[in-house]
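Title: Prediction job returns without error message
Component: structure pipeline
Severity: low
Priority: P3
Assignee: unassigned

Description:
Job completed but the reporter wants confirmation the result is attached to the right record. Sequence as submitted:
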Amino acid sequence: MSRSPSTVFHFTKKEALLGILKENFKIQYCFERWTTHQSEDFAIPMVSFCDIKLSEIDHMFKYGNYGIGLVKSGQ
């Protein structure tokens, strides 16, 4: 048995959920800074998901009370 659930979830507010169902997920950019000899800023396009067991999820309080679950490929 896998330690990780076979479903990933994206939590959001009601208005955003309706937008996802109508138009699909929208890419947001996560801004990061890479520092070695010099600093470089860049943005990573993404949609955030979590693979936490439903009994352990507290994301709803931060991101919204609505969620979409997607089954992981190959599970």
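Comment from assignee: result matches the submitted record. Helices lie at 14-23, 60-63.
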